[in-house]
Design a protein that fits this description.
Layout: H1 9-18, E1 26-28, E2 35-40, E3 43-53, H2 65-82, E4 86-97, H3 101-118, E5 122-131, E6 136-146, E7 161-165, H4 175-178, H5 183-192, E8 197-200, H6 205-216, E9 219-223, H7 231-234, H8 242-248, E10 255-259, H9 261-269, E11 277-284, E12 289-292, E13 298-300
Parallel strand pairs: 4-5, 9-12
Antiparallel strand pairs: 1-2, 2-3, 3-6, 4-6, 7-10, 7-11, 8-10, 9-11, 12-13
C-alpha cells in the first residue's frame, strides 16, 4: 500500500484536501464544519452538506420519515451553528426507493420543512432520483456570517477554557432524530463573548476535541467530573459506562468551544440562554489530550468516536 494511501474517512479527506487547488474566493475550504466563501468585504457565505443513508444514519422504523427529514436538515444547521453563522437556504437531494417513493418523499420533506420554517430557512431547490436501494437524503445548506466574527476550529489558545452546551452521550436512544441544532445559542455566544474555536459534537466529544486540538496546534486536559452526562447515557445498560458514552457516542450535536477564562466565568455567572453550559477543561500549550480523573491523575484521551470505515480491496 502506498504511504499516502487513505485508510479511513479522515485520511481520505486529507488526501482530497492536498489535491484541491485553492482560490482567493474560498476563505476556508476542506477541514472545518463549513466552507467559507467571500461575498463582500464584511460578509461571507457558509456552505455545508451532509448525506444520510438508511441503515447507517437511521432505520425506518423505528425512525419515521418525518424524523429523517428533521435530522437531515438539523445536522447541516448544526454545522452552520459551529461556525457561528445564520442559515439561509437549503438544497435537498433525495434518492428514493422505487416502491412507495413518492409518499416517502412527501413525509421526509414535511420533516425538513417544519425545521426550515422554525429557522427561517428557504428550501431553494434540489434533486430527486430513484433506485432499487434504500432511502438516501443529502442536503446542502447555505448560510451567512460576519467575515470578522466567523469561528473556526483552529483558534484555540493555551489557557482557554473548554466549554460545551447541553448534556452528552446516549444519542442513539432517540436524541439523534429529534435534536434541536444550537443555532440560536451559537449566535448569542458569538455576540456576548469572544469565541476562539468551536465545533459541533457529531463524531463524539473525544474525537471532535481532537479535531480542534490538531487544527489549533495545542493540547487539552478534560476533567472527568465536569463532563455533563445525559440521562440517556446513564440508562443505556449496554456494558459501557455513562462516561464512555459521553466521550465517544456520536451525534450529540452540542457545541464544543474555547474562550478566555474571563469570558467563561461571565457565561457561567450570567447564562445567556436556558441551554446548559459546562466548563469541562482547559487548553494546554503542550500537545496531547488527557483526562483528569477524580483523584487528580492524568490519563491519555484518544480520539475515540464515530468513523466511517473502509475495507481494503484491489486498486481501482
Amino acid at each position: 500500500m502506498p504511504a499516502d494511501q487513505p485508510h479511513d474517512e479522515f485520511s481520505l479527506i486529507d488526501w482530497i484536501d492536498k489535491r484541491s487547488p485553492g482560490d482567493p474566493q474560498v476563505l476556508l475550504g476542506i477541514g472545518d464544519d463549513a466552507a467559507l466563501l467571500r461575498v463582500q468585504p464584511d460578509m461571507a457565505r457558509l456552505a455545508t452538506m451532509d448525506t444520510l443513508m438508511q441503515g447507517v444514519h437511521f432505520t425506518i422504523p423505528p425512525a419515521s420519515p418525518r424524523q429523517v427529514g428533521h435530522k437531515a436538515l438539523a445536522v447541516n444547521l448544526s454545522d452552520i451553528a459551529a461556525m457561528a453563522g445564520r442559515p439561509r437556504a437549503a438544497l435537498v437531494s433525495l434518492v428514493l426507493p422505487r416502491e412507495n417513493g413518492i409518499p416517502l418523499a412527501q413525509e421526509v420533506h414535511t420533516g425538513i420543512q417544519s425545521l426550515a420554517t422554525a429557522h427561517d430557512v428557504v428550501i431553494a431547490g434540489g434533486d430527486t432520483n430513484t433506485w432499487n436501494g434504500p432511502l438516501v437524503v443529502s442536503l446542502t445548506v447555505l448560510g451567512e456570517v460576519d467575515a470578522h466574527r466567523v469561528v473556526r476550529r483552529d483558534g484555540a489558545r493555551a489557557g482557554d477554557w473548554i466549554m460545551v452546551t447541553g448534556a452528552l452521550g446516549g444519542s442513539g436512544s432517540g436524541k439523534h432524530l429529534a435534536f434541536q441544532p444550537r443555532v440560536p445559542e451559537a449566535l448569542i455566544l458569538n455576540e456576548q463573548v469572544s469565541l476562539h474555536a468551536m465545533i459541533d459534537i457529531s463524531d463524539g466529544l473525544a474525537a471532535d476535541l481532537h479535531h480542534v486540538l490538531r487544527h489549533s496546534g495545542v493540547g487539552a486536559v478534560v476533567d472527568v467530573t465536569s463532563i455533563p452526562i445525559s440521562r440517556a447515557a446513564v440508562e443505556c445498560g449496554d456494558g459501557q459506562t455513562p462516561l464512555e458514552h459521553a466521550l465517544c457516542d456520536g451525534e450529540d450535536f452540542e457545541l464544543l468551544f474555547t474562550l478566555s477564562p474571563a469570558d467563561g466565568r461571565k457565561l457561567l455567572e450570567q447564562p445567556p440562554f436556558a441551554t446548559r453550559l459546562s466548563k469541562i477543561g482547559e487548553i494546554t500549550a503542550a500537545a496531547g489530550c488527557h483526562l483528569r480523573t477524580a483523584e487528580g491523575r492524568l490519563e491519555a484521551l484518544p480520539p475515540r468516536g464515530w468513523q466511517h470505515g473502509f475495507h481494503s480491496g484491489p486498486a481501482i
